[in-house]
Specification:
Layout: H1 5-57, H2 59-64, H3 67-81, E1 84-89, E2 94-97, H4 113-121, E3 123-130, E4 135-144, E5 147-154, H5 156-206, H6 221-256, E6 260-265, E7 270-273, H7 275-281, H8 292-295, H9 299-311, E8 315-320, E9 326-336, E10 339-349, H10 351-387, H11 392-424, E11 431-433, H12 435-452, E12 456-460, E13 468-470, H13 472-488, E14 495-503, E15 506-513, H14 535-540, H15 547-558, E16 561-566, E17 571-576
Parallel strand pairs: 12-14
Antiparallel strand pairs: 1-2, 1-5, 3-4, 4-5, 6-7, 6-10, 8-9, 9-10, 11-13, 14-15, 15-17, 16-17
Helix pairs in contact: 1-5, 5-6, 10-11, 11-15, 12-13, 13-15
């Protein structure tokens, strides 16, 4: 604020005027209050004389009679003089009070300031805030005979008069301040206008507005400075434009790189950071100029950066960020003339690579397990058969079980080949297909399997279109695997209901069974490869764990939407076309 000449002139002048106005206000208010209090004191002294005279004429009634009588008489006196009256004994006990009926509840008044003054000096005054009336009260006490007479008067009238006077003074002072402010502003602007024009030019030029020039010269020293600054600006503009162009090319190049890049100065502040760096570390848009350990929320990365600052040695390491992203971090110190000038940090995003590697690991592990299990079982059956070739019944039973495992192995390999074809091949031509015919075809194939469990499959074709664009192979994979699962995981005697209907422009097909259902925590994972909710039941039904994964890939290729819901009494799949 005080860096500007005009502000200093305005401030000191206004401070002087304000101080004078405030001093005048304080003096007038204080003197007015003293004057009002002196008037009140004289008034109350006269009224105490009047009360003292009345009490002395009939002291027995006012001080010695019954409490009810004393209270009645003192209230009549209070009404006459329009002030609160309190009779207090010399030991501070309240004998009567015009406004407080139950004087037995009143505190001892011996140590009230006005009472103490009256005991020692004959009379005393004090001003206190009344918690009952929420205003200041003026108390006057005088010793009279064997007791003390105290009067109390609210200071609200004095306060209101002083408040009105204060308002008048403030209004006048404010007017003076406004007029003074207007005059001094005009004077200061005239004095500082050339300086402000020069500062405006320098500020705009330093901010990048290189077309800015000073046009209105004055014929003094400031005008000579302004002309020199214009010549300097002309010379510097060409150099700055060249540097800006080179910097723009560099920033464009850095921003276009997908790796996160940041340059950190030797003061540990970030000098350059591209968009990829901000996105990977979730630092926000404004990181330039911040300390790297304030912007980067990774203890490990900050530790390596600190180490590079201390040792000046390059570091390469893998880093897991807070947002579950992985990257390969490379820290290269930047040196000039043998001294460390800063650090170049490069973050190469390896999140997808990590995911792909993990998926490959999981896929190999699952496939190895799924392929090895039937072979191991088959080997066990064959070894047992070899040892009991003479037992025809046992050999026949084991041979049937071995064939079941061979069929399971064959189904698994077929599903793997189908899934691979869906993931790698794009040779699925669009043709006109009949959804109802495809569903019925799948029902025919699975009828025998459903009859073994006494499961009823019901199909309601509704009013859906007879033929739509699609691919028959993909559509059969979708419906066959969902209906097959509805049978495998259904209860004996259960049902599978297939409903097809139009919902606006969308063909909706629901397949609902009355089976064991799917736990809520498994709904989002049922379309993963080899994922089984109940592994023991899945193997018992001959499932490969790939059926719903095939459904998801086939539906994606057809641009269909497949979702699943389960409420504990079965599972419902919804296919929207």
């Amino acid at each position: 604020m005080f860096n500007k000449i005009s502000n200093r002139i305005i401030f000191f002048f206004m401070a002087l005027v304000t101080a004078m106005t405030a001093a005048l206000l304080i003096i007038i208010i204080n003197q007015t209050r003293v004057y009002y209090l002196a008037i009140i004191r004289r008034e109350m002294a006269e009224k105490v004389n009047f009360i003292d005279l009345i009490v002395k004429q009939n002291r027995a009634r006012y001080l010695g009679g019954a409490l009810y009588e004393r209270q009645k008489l003192i209230r009549e006196l209070s009404g006459i003089i329009d002030l609160r009256i309190t009779f207090v004994d010399l030991d501070g006990t309240v004998r009567a009070d015009s406004e407080y009926a139950d004087i037995g509840e009143m505190d001892n008044h011996k140590y009230r300031p006005e009472i103490m003054d009256a005991l020692t000096g004959g009379s005393g005054t004090s001003i206190r805030y009344s918690d009952t009336l929420k205003i200041d009260m003026f108390y006057y006490a005088r010793r009279s005979g064997g007791g003390i007479i105290r009067l109390a008067k609210p200071l609200i009238e004095a306060d209101e008069s002083i408040a009105r006077l204060r308002a008048y003074i403030l209004a006048a002072g404010g007017t003076v301040l406004l007029l003074s402010f207007a005059v001094i502003v005009m004077i200061s602007r005239r004095i500082t206008r050339p300086i402000n024009e020069t500062l405006h030019f320098a500020r705009d030029f330093s901010a990048g507005d290189f077309s800015q020039r000073i046009h209105n010269y004055s014929n003094d020293e400031i005008g000579a400075v302004q002309k020199a600054l214009n010549r300097l600006a002309d010379t510097a503009q060409d150099t700055i434009n060249g540097l800006i162009e080179e910097q723009r090319k560099l920033e464009t190049t850095i921003e276009s790189i997908h790796d996160g890049i940041a340059v950190i100065g030797r003061d540990k502040r970030i000098l350059i950071a591209n968009r990829a760096f901000k996105s990977m570390l979730d630092t926000g848009s404004n990181v330039r100029g911040r300390l790297f350990f304030e912007a980067i929320r990774s203890r490990s990365l900050n530790s390596h950066l600190e180490q590079a600052h201390i040792t000046g040695q390059p570091i390469v390491f893998d880093e897991e960020l807070l947002n579950e992203r992985h990257c390969e971090a490379t820290i290269n110190p930047v040196r000039s003339e043998g001294s460390l000038q800063g650090i170049l940090l490069v973050l190469h995003d390896t999140t997808e690579k990590k995911k792909i590697d993990q998926m490959k690991t999981d896929l190999v592990s699952n496939m190895s397990h799924e392929l090895k299990t039937p072979i191991t079982i088959l080997k066990g059956y064959l070894e047992t058969m070899e040892q009991h070739l003479c037992d025809a019944d046992m050999v026949s039973d084991l041979l049937k079980k071995a064939l079941v495992n061979v069929d399971r192995q064959s189904s698994l390999i077929n599903d793997i080949l189908k899934l691979n074809r869906l993931e790698t091949s794009m040779d699925f031509p669009i043709e006109v297909i009949d959804i109802s015919d495809i569903i019925r075809s799948c029902m025919d194939i699975l009828t025998h399997k459903a009859q073994k469990k006494n499961i009823s499959i019901r199909f309601n074709a509704g009013g859906g279109p007879a033929r739509i664009p699609g691919n028959r192979f993909l559509a059969e994979e979708v419906f066959f695997n969902i209906i097959d699962n509805a049978i495998n995981y259904n209860h004996d005697g259960g049902t599978v209901d297939i409903d097809m209907k139009m919902s606006g422009a969308t063909l909706a097909i629901s397949i609902k069974d009355t089976g064991i259902g799917i736990p809520p925590e498994s709904i989002d994972r049922i379309f993963e490869r080899f994922y089984r909710v109940d592994k023991s039941r899945s193997r018992a039904t001959g499932g490969t764990g790939l059926g719903l994964s095939i459904v998801k890939h086939a539906a994606t290729l057809l641009n269909w939407d497949v979702t699943a819901q389960s409420d504990g009494s079965g599972t419902s799949f919804l296919i929207e076309i």
